[in-house]
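Homework help board

Subject: predicted structure for assignment chain

Our instructor gave us this sequence and asked us to write out the predicted structure in token form, then describe one feature. I got the tokens but I'm not sure how to describe them. Can anyone check?
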Amino acid sequence: MSLEEVVEMDIQLQEFKELDAGFAQFVERHGYVAGTPEVRHAYRRWEYDQILNKLEEERIAAKKAEEVAESNAISEARGEAKGKAEGIAEQQMAFALNYLKLFGHSKSKEDQDGEMLAYGIHSDVIKAARKQLEEPQEQQSSCSREGTNPET
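My token output:
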């Protein structure tokens, strides 16, 4: 007895077949596939290929999702590291400026540099702090030589 005959014998299965296109397709395919061993084998091979294709698509999608997540994590870590480095540089610059303002006239340049280096202040930051403190003085001295006021 074929599946189609079983469905025809049961009213509920008939109604379900009319309502559910997937079930109707299954009944139709089953009747065709059950016909000969060659057709059954070909159909099973086709089903197997469909499953493999679906698995490959899912594998590719999962790999892409993993790559995106990894890329996002790397970008986030780089941003975090950059932010920390900028924060440290700002703290070092503030320390160097305050140190030079406090001890700029009472200690030699070598002593100042040595102490700031001992505190972990980078030499480039020390140079930048000195330059920043010298610029306003240079502007004031050039303005006073010219007889002008820098604030006007």
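Reply (TA_rk): Your tokens look well-formed. For the description, you could write something like this. Residues 36-146 form one domain. That's the kind of observation they're looking for.
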